[in-house]
Amino acid sequence: MTDISDLMRRATDGLAPESPDLVQRGMAQGLRMRRRRTVLVSAAAAGAVIATAGFAVAVQSIGPGNTAPGGVQVAGQTTAKPTPRPTATKPTTKPWQPRFALNTLRKVLPAEVKTSDPHVWGEKGDFNGGSWTIDDGGGLAEVNAMIARHSLKNCTDDDLPASCRKLADGTLVVSRKLEPSYGPGDPRDVGVVANSVEVYRPDGLRVNIMAFNSVDEKDSPKTRALPPYTVEQLTTMARKPAWAPALAILNPPAKPAK
Description:
Shape: elongated
Low-confidence stretches: 1-5, 15-20, 55-59, 64-72
Strand order of the largest sheet: 3-4-5-9-8-7-6
Structural class: alpha+beta
Radius of gyration: 52 Å
Largest sheet: 7 strands, antiparallel
Number of strands: 9
Strand content: 15-25%
Order of helices and strands: HHEEHEEEEEEEH
Distance between the termini: 133 Å
């Protein structure tokens, strides 16, 4: 059998090309097409790189936990924490302490003195008082104290007596020496007298301390010649820092009517 390639060669024998540069022009055309394809491929690759970089910048600007444009969810998204419920407001005052004046009075009395027969009185949030019968070796005697709020600033306020004096820190001190429990000529007057002080602190706390020469300020005979403490000693007791916590259990003073 005749080889097929030999037949094809014979069939083209004697044929001359229509144009002598046909082959050259075909090769040049092929070269131009390859160059164009290379340019297009390079441009497409560059566009893909730019698009990828732009997407990365968008993700960074959005931040974790957000959604990129077009609805694409960004990796690392966290679930928002629920808003905590508001806590209840705590009361501005501490629970009422009916024995505050009694206990604090014992703290400011001399440590060596013996105390007995405690009594308390007062009205919740408004005032509180307490008393002790003391024994200092000179005869039994009553000492009592009371706390309340005040709004006084000067000795001329609220008809304070002439014995009122204002200290450098703004404290007002009213003192009374050997004041009878009952007025002269009163049949109940049994010679019971008292030393007392009223201390009006600048922070709005009033502390009143009294010392008698009897175990009871009323209807009881005197048990000693004089009260166990002077007004100077009582003033020192009333100004002790131990009284400061009283402000937390007392109601704020009422605002004046407009």
